[in-house]
């Protein structure tokens, strides 16, 4: 069996490989829309082999653009989208372990080929946005190297010798795994989390088997898994009479080796598929949502960002690492990249957090990265591992190739293609300024206090803290120093309009253009609105209905007092009168009428009131005997 066809494999060689592996019965083109959804279809292999030239040229496959998220780009009367394949990345074979080929004895495989989406002659998909952005950033960085033969902190490299720029990235996948149809106690898991009973704990039973199978399976695809382990959330499973593990509810993380940025984003989509199918194969379900259970640790997907230069002699040089790592935290390019990311984060954040679920995770506590601030370490000799900041500097003094940034706000459903495109566009903006300064000047700029004038960063903001930002600062101080974080999808998308200069930074390369940004924003708002109306409000209404008065032979004045508070809160949330409407009704009306500013405020109030209701009812119920 073959698991991967390497990037840039010759077309004739592809034909030979597929002919030699008849168990690969289908081809599926993977285009990625603005929401990060990847397409999947079953094309018989003989059609691909017969029409291979047309597949490469984008003539063989078309899709109905109304079936993918290209809001504002594709219309119902102009919906044709072409799908040319991308030979510059790896192609993975997705095997169906539940359907074996009788002739070969192998499971039937589908060759997943990454593709682009073209509408009216223009590429309009997430993959092309990242690919085109990287080409632009590469050209600009190469030009900066040519015009600055010596860059502070990188004096060992002659800029005129740089012939190529490489962009490296990697993601860390966190997910919850549980036994289907079984619900565990949130309170019990919260206690387990606080007491740190799960992190790095040994896996058992079916979870252990599934995790080991995932690691072995992913290595067959050349992904070089570096680690799989239990995360902070979960509780110990139970065992029934037959020895079967039941009530499984644990959090897992899997990490694998970095790749070039486009390949890294492709890898992430495929890893999610392998993980889901592997766990499902032994009777467990996985959840990649950012916050599957309120009150417990969410699923992050820390995204690592790096940049390297290739010189005429063929050597690779980490552009973020300084020549003297005990003297400088980073090179001038590293400082510039970090400053560009932080200064422009208001317009990067919409691509990072575009769902209601993402904002359920991004709240103070659980090490949630909500403050636009970095940490470098107290001295260059002592690297930082501050887990309360948005983006951190990861470095190893003994290994200059390890220097990179870790963006901690992403989650498994972040559109990594668009997020990386926005990040590298912002990185370019910072680097363009930084190459004109020394590393000492740049360290002072990044470390400036709020209110101090800077030559690049904003005057009213601070951008570096070595402290625990949730313990050291009050909420008011955090908002003043690092900016008030958005609380809803609408507030986040409004950042495009509120920060036109920063939006222009993203648009300079032409790939993240007005059409693409509007399509992404409009699609995110449509999903935000639809989920609130069709899922979140009905689910909350069910919770309100279940909070009923409890009859008991023994009641106290506290019981009566608590029930009166609960009853009033239930009515405020869900009970309409002729003249006064409930919070649920007012929120639904505002969404339906397109008054998103009001809807956003009501959504925040709804979440606060629902948490208050659940806490009150929990206390009320516990006092009943």
Question: How would you portray this structure in words?
Answer:
By secondary structure, the chain is an alpha+beta fold. The chain folds into three domains: 4-124, Ubiquitin-like (UB roll); 129-512, Creatine Kinase, Chain A, domain 2; 525-622. It is built from 20 helices and 21 strands. Strands 10, 11, 14, 15, 16, 17, 18, 19, 20 and 21 form a ten-stranded mixed β-sheet that branches. The chain is globular, with a radius of gyration of 26 Å.
The CATH topology name of the largest domain reads Creatine Kinase, Chain A, domain 2
| CATH H-level homologous superfamily name of the largest domain | Glutamine synthetase/guanido kinase, catalytic domain
Q: Find the structural class using helix and strand composition.
A: alpha+beta
In CATH terms, what is the architecture of the largest domain? Answer: 2-Layer Sandwich
What low-confidence regions span 5 or more consecutive residues with pLDDT below 50? Answer: 188-195
Helix content bin: 40-55%
Features:
3 domains, Creatine Kinase, Chain A, domain 2, 625 residues, Ubiquitin-like (UB roll), 5-stranded mixed β-sheet, 18% strand, 21 strands, globular, alpha+beta, 10-stranded mixed β-sheet, single chain, 20 helices, 41% helix
Strands, helices and their partners?
Blueprint lengths: L3 E2 L5 H9 L4 E7 L12 E2 H6 L1 H6 L4 E3 L15 E3 L8 E10 L6 E8 L3 E2 L2 E2 L2 H22 L14 E17 L7 H9 L10 H16 L4 E11 L2 E2 L5 E2 L2 E8 L2 E2 H20 L4 E3 L15 E9 L4 E3 L13 H12 L1 H8 L3 H6 L12 E2 L15 E6 L2 E9 L8 H19 L4 H8 L22 H4 L2 H8 L6 H10 L1 H8 L6 H33 L10 H18 L8 H10 L3 H27 L3
Parallel strand pairs: 2-7, 19-20
Antiparallel strand pairs: 1-6, 2-3, 4-5, 6-7, 8-9, 10-14, 10-15, 10-16, 10-17, 11-14, 12-13, 17-18, 17-21, 20-21
Helix pairs in contact: 4-11, 6-7, 8-11, 8-12, 9-11, 9-15, 11-16, 17-19, 18-20, 19-20
